[in-house]
Amino acid sequence: MSEGFHFYTQYHLVEVLGLHTRNPGELLEGIKAVPASSIYYHTHRFLQQHHYLSPEPPNDFAFWLMDIMHLNSLGEEFLSIDTVHYCNLEDLREKFQDILEEYLSNGGSNTDCLPGFEFHFLACKTFVLPMPYVAHNLTEFAEILKKVSIRALYFHMFEARMRLGVPDNDFSQWLKSLGEKSLANKISRLDPYNMTLESLRKKIIRMVEDRVQS
Amino acid sequence: MSRVDDYRAIVGDEEVDELYLLAERLRGKAVQNINSTAIGGGVAEILSRMVPLLRDLGVDAHWDVIKGNEKFFTVTKNMHNALHGLNVDVSENDLDYFLEVNRQNSEDLDLFGDIVFIHDPQPIGLVEKRTHNGNKWIWRCHIDISEPQKSTMDFLRGFIDRYDAAVFSAPRFARSDVATRQILISPSIDPLSEKNRDLPKAAIDAVVERYGLDRDRPIVTQISRFDYFKDPMGVIEVYKKVKNHIDCQLVLAGGGATDDPEGPRVLDQIKSAAQSDPDIHIIYLPPSSDLEVNALQRASTVILQKSLREGFGLTVTEALWKAKPVIATSTGGIPLQIRHKHSGILTYSIAGMAHYLKEVLSEPECAAKLGLNGREHIKNNFLITRHIKDYLCLFISLYHEEDMVHL
After folding, report:
1. What is the CATH number of the domain that holds B217?
2. Number of residue pairs across A and B with CB atoms under 8 Å?
3. Would you say residue B356 lies in a domain?
4. CB proximity list for A169: less than 8 A, separation 6 or greater
5. Hey, is the C-beta of A209 within 8 angstroms of any chain B C-beta?
6. Residue B382's pLDDT is what?
């Protein structure tokens, strides 16, 4: 018999690394130098800060390159990275490096931004906190998912997979242990980086409720 | 006074429940906040709301204020201006006096906190009294020190490096030449405070009438301390450029703080600049005028914030929370609050601000959309409940080295 699903929530405390860049070349050096928690922060921040607005660029690098530097083609390279396919921050870092190295070796513009518009590298410390909610079946799971904060949803869908090196999101792993392989796979196939967290919550709840009623 | 549970209706049960869960992790730790003024200005305002709410959550939070005379606050105002990059003279004698007052306060104050939380430069020197008995010290910098005068910054750095962490309001305020851990925490507003709570129409009308404003014509307002960095003279120029095309009124309303001796001089200057125009309303508000500020913001058609330098710009936060279209200079923490043409307008000059003011006054539907997006952004990111959560995490982080903390 499977164990119940224990819900956790998480918080980020943002740290400033005191490192900033003015052009794509410096961005490359920065991406090479910063800790993995900084790559994580800059590729996941938007998900939590703009959860009620439309989906935002999936990483801060794309935003800076496009909105500040007006390097739209380079920015779109960053924008289109399929973050969901990376289980590991070092692979993601390497992908960013490859894009910038190719851009610079092809003679891409490397002029400085205006003063005051530099890219500032940040990082985050994560606090994981157990919540007093345990689901023992699909019905309970859907009911709890309706009432937890989006930070709890975020933790189980993103944080565990990307920072704890777990191969799949927590929900799918638990569902598989219940024998709900098809439902688990459906949730795994969602691209959570391309929708708001509220949309993601609704989609998962609907999938679970449909399964309960089937 | 508001209780933590009162915020459930605004931010949801789940947000408030999680605050209680986090606060439990701080049981047994006394948090002692220290700043330089009990009344006036953003820091005192945040502390007056934050400390009771932390206590309501079960955190043993306290707030003390250092004592200083006019000479001390003149020195600290000069230091403040120098840290903002102005070319002002802060002499060796001034710095000696600053240290003397800090040392006197460190004798008078009982620095009992397990976590001593010092706000802004005025009391920064209290850290000299730090004893290494396991207590933690945090310095909270509420101002922009990204381009400071070197000598004043060098003086300050000697103190900052003795803290366990330094907290800044915007990424660009942080320093690459500071050795201590640097944390980013945006300030916040309290949606239930007198300054931000919903007001009945009658209360707004009464304030509008009291100050002789005409509700039938657009009201353009800047609420700020009377301070050179808020550029009230620039606001008058913006208004004059727009007034040629649109018949509007300008309100410049604000007060002073007990640690700011510059205010009366600035007020006199703008009064004389506005003398000949009956549609420019200069309103000096005493510290207890939160209701008036609230009503003036709500009665306004557009809110301006033409700061030359800014800490975070909480007056912008307040205006956005009231779903007002805001046109502000892109300085300090303002770009964190406004995405240009989505949740407000960012400008860089008097000409630019005048251009956008005409546009916003001429397009009320677009103006309303800017205001609504702005309110949503503030709700998600800049209310006091998020701020409390960040502070709780900050306090807890002092006892954990690792990147991923399982509580």
Report:
1. 3.40.50.2000
2. 94
3. yes
4. A156, A157, A158, A160, A161, A187, A188, A192
5. no
6. 94
Q: pTM for the full model?
A: 0.87
Number of domains making up chain B: 2
B156-210 pLDDT, tens digit each: 999 999 999 999 988 888 888 899 999 999 989 999 999 999 999 999 999 999 9
What is the tens place of the pLDDT at every residue in B7-45?
999 999 999 999 999 999 999 999 999 999 888 777 888
pLDDT less than 50: residues of chain A: 54-55
Do B282 and B365 lie in a common domain?
Answer: yes
Domain that holds residue B369: 201-381
pLDDT tens for residues B105-156? 999 999 999 999 999 999 999 999 998 778 999 999 988 888 899 999 999 9
- CB count in 10 Å sphere of residue A186: 18
Tokens of B185: 């925490």
Nearest to B177 by CA among B218, B148, B204: B148
B347 and B328 within one domain = yes
Alpha-carbon span B63 to B31, nearest angstrom: 9
Query: Closest Cα of chain B to A106: distance in Å?
Result: 31
- Chain A residue closest to B335 (CA)? A117
**Ranges of each domain in chain A:** 5-9+128-213, 12-123
**Chain B residue numbers touching A145 (CB-CB < 8 A):** none
Asked if residues B278 and B9 have their Cβ atoms less than 8 Å apart, the reply is no
CB-closest option in B175, B176, B183 to A14: B183
Beta bridge partners of A6: A134
The answer to whether position B407 is within a domain reads no
Strand (E) positions, B239-284? 249-254, 280-284
Helix axes of B41-56 and B384-397: crossing angle, nearest 10 degrees: 70
